[in-house]
Amino acid sequence: NRQFRLARRPAGMVKREDFEFRTDRPRPPESGEIMVGVEYLSLDPAMRGWMNEGKSYIPPVRLGEVMRALGLGTVIESKAPGFAPGDTVSGQLGVQSVATVAAKDCFKVDPSLAPKPLFLSALGMTGMTAYFGLLAVGEPKPGETVVVSGAAGAVGALVGQIARIKGCRAVGIAGGAAKCRYLVDELGFDTAIDYKSEAVPAKLREHCPKGIDVYFDNVGGQILDDCLAQINLRARVVICGAISQYNNTTPVKGPANYLSLLVNRARMQGMIVFDYADRYAEAARDIAGWMREGKLRSREDIADGIETFPETLLKLFTGENFGKLILKV
Ligand code: NDP
Fold first, then answer.
1. pTM of the shown model
2. Tell me, what's the ipTM?
3. What is the distance in A from the centroid of ligand 1 to the CA of 61?
4. How close are the terminal C-alpha atoms of the chain, in Å?
5. What is the CATH number of domain 125-274?
């Protein structure tokens, strides 16, 4: 079993030295457990937060513990009812090639329905985040303008496409011309803003002539402030993430333009995808249906080799990933 354990709490960007790479014999399953051969790992910006000490929506990864990660693999051995060798399962498997975990924390997926990586992408937590963040928290109505940041990323790309499906104008904010072209030409966004080379406030004014009704925030920082400045009466601001702040060595500064919420009687609300777990099946059905009808596309960026984990994870914070970042074990 090859695995990455958290060796120390990172300061700023993660480094290889923050982890210990170890090889040992996998632990046989006890009652209620399954042993899984891990095939794919989901690399998520949230992993950076899990490495920090402090109170969050789930406890931090302990020092010396296998780094937490969602994954997908095949059951090798089972001591749990309902799970048999050969079953494909997904759950918190950790950054390792073989995981012995409680079966109740995993769920079975049917690999005949879609390519396996998709269960960590549009049909997995990423898709659920976009779906419930936009529809349940953002509550978009047809004709409204939806702005999403991190738009060419895994969650953001789905948010913009679902906004279009719901009859909204979709405006994406992403880094670089290639990602912006992709949003408009391939995914059907109405328009895209390159925050690395364009002035975001001026471009928002140009592309959102009727203001912003829903802002889906993946990045926080200056872009959140720029969007807050242009929200409409009763706008909804969905706080999904703040990737621009995750590697800060100083505390996160709140938005300077928050009084825009007061002036506009607007609402800014945080969301955690796990709160919608009992409705995942409904979302997966809708998303799979849209994919079948050709209305929604999912893009995966698959890196190879568990040994590359620290460097591959870093791609999320440099913007080198193009699509849902997945590590093929
Ligand atoms: P992405 O695929 O979007 O990858 C991260 C992207 O963030 C990069 O490609 C990069 O795109 C962008 N980025 C990195 N640094 C910065 C920066 N300083 N400023 C602006 N953009 C930056 O990852 P995910 O789709 O998996 O996650 C997107 C967001 O959703 C994250 O904030 C994550 O924490 C959040 N999330 C929240 C969940 C919840 O339950 N609330 C669940 C899942 C995800 P670019 O090249 O455009 O800069």
1. 0.97
2. 0.99
3. 20
4. 11
5. 3.40.50.720
